[in-house]
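The records we work with from here on pair a chain with its fold. Taken together, the tokens spell out the fold as the letters spell out the chain. The record below shows the convention in full.
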Amino acid sequence: MPHKISDACVACGTCVPECPVEAISEGDPIYIIDAKKCTDCGACAEVCPAEAIHPE
């Protein structure tokens, strides 16, 4: 199950370098996770200061 970024995202970019498969990209206005690339490792959710990343 891939992760998803909610509207609580503050677009800080902290999650981007944590993704081992480069599934996170800058969206408008919040970051987005490519569900096809996401391996559900949860690394992004662990570092999110806004707790905006959750399993879909």
Remarks:
- The chain has one domain: 1-56.
